[in-house]
Write a structure and sequence with these properties.
Largest sheet: 6 strands, mixed
Mean pLDDT: 89
Low-confidence stretches: none
Helix content: 55-70%
Number of helices: 12
Strand order of the largest sheet: 3-2-1-4-5-6
Shape: globular
Strand content: 5-15%
Structural class: alpha/beta
């Protein structure tokens, strides 16, 4: 007996569901609020079907909060990508009109007819890593903005300005020698002093964030940092955005997801490929940084890059080939980490059986 699918179209303050059977026949609909009372009524309606399976659109986006609430209550939940739901809606009756009810039905149909959809699991350490590395990136952008504004003021206060890479201590020493007499100069000096204080505060927060990232990474036992060119922030970004590596059946799917796999643009007898602008650009940036670090040092990555140049590739094409190769290396490391974790969790249960 095929399970009943509960398609869910989530929004910030409301959620629409449609229940369909194995033949796509509607068994019920409903619209509920996302507050505690609305969620309870939605859950009660769904639990009337003992063989139910929830299908939520965008479990890494707007549907994340609802999906995690369902999982926490012991409900089976599938993650339906919004792109697949949109395709199903276009080919449905009703001229493809976008309504909440139509979206909920499309989500249910996709879950019913599509194999390999990701099963939602409770938030774990990867979510904490993603939160921390997002905060670390925000601090990095804030520091860059603060330093740029400080450079502008120092250029107007000191002939020749300050050096490019500037710390709060160095900026404070430079500013100590400046004693403007006019009101404009004194105003600039005061604003520069405020920016130096902000810079020192941001640096302390970045140091604390790096410490937290390192501690959490050590707790995961990941081997990503053994790869040349990956530091704590890059490792945390990979773990946080990838989550469960098992959702990628092979290294090709992983490369397509992170945008390092070229797109086939062949026509007739002309075989060619073009650069992919799709995929997770944050992971793509991590792989790009990894490639640049390897090119600057005597590594197998630089040797591979030079071989591609010798084969007639341009520098840009060669570095794209290297990024694709590094994507495979990261995928292999993540798969190995997953196997090690699975073995470590299986050992205690097997030892109990032996005793």
């Amino acid at each position: 007996m095929s399970p009943v699918i509960i398609g869910v179209d989530p929004h910030k303050r409301s959620v629409t569901i449609e229940i369909v059977d194995g033949r796509e026949r509607s068994l019920g609909q409903g619209r509920f609020g996302t507050d505690n009372d609305g969620y309870r009524r939605m859950l009660e309606q769904g639990r009337r079907r003992p063989d139910r399976l929830w299908a939520v659109e965008g479990c890494n986006g707007v549907g994340k909060h609802l999906a995690q609430r369902l999982v926490a209550d012991g409900e089976p939940v599938l993650d339906v990508p919004a792109k697949l739901a949109a395709r199903a809606r276009v080919f449905d009756t009703g001229h493809g009109r976008k309504t909440d009810a139509a979206d909920a039905r499309s989500v249910a149909v996709v879950a019913l007819r599509t194999t390999g959809l990701h099963r939602v699991s409770p938030d774990d350490h990867t979510v904490a890593l993603r939160l921390l590395v997002d905060r670390r990136d925000e601090l990095g952008r804030a520091r860059t903005d603060t330093v740029n504004r400080l450079h502008k003021l120092l250029t107007e206060l000191i002939p020749g300005g300050a050096k490019k890479f500037l710390s709060a201590t160095q900026a404070r020493a430079l500013l100590a020698a400046v004693r403007p007499r006019d009101v404009v100069g004194r105003t600039r000096r005061r604003l520069a002093a405020e920016l130096i204080t902000e810079l020192a505060t941001i640096d302390r927060k970045m140091t604390a964030a790096d410490t937290q990232l390192t501690e959490l990474l050590d707790a995961t036992g990941t081997g990503l940092r053994t790869l040349y060119g990956i530091g704590p922030s890059s490792a945390a970004r990979i773990l946080g955005d990838v989550g469960d590596i098992g959702r990628f059946p092979d290294r090709g799917r992983f490369a397509s997801w992170n945008g390092t796999a070229p797109i086939d643009a062949s026509s007739g007898e002309h075989q060619r490929h073009r650069l992919s602008r799709a995929g997770n650009r944050r992971i793509n940036r991590v792989l790009h940084i990894m490639a640049i670090v390897q090119l600057r040092n005597d590594t197998p990555g630089r040797a591979y890059y030079r071989r591609k140049l010798a084969d007639g590739k341009s520098p840009r094409e060669a570095i794209r080939c290297l990024k694709r190769r590094l994507s495979d290396t990261v995928y292999k490391r993540l798969v190995t980490d997953a196997k090690i974790r699975a073995a470590s969790t299986a050992e205690p249960s097997s030892s109990r059986l032996l005793t």
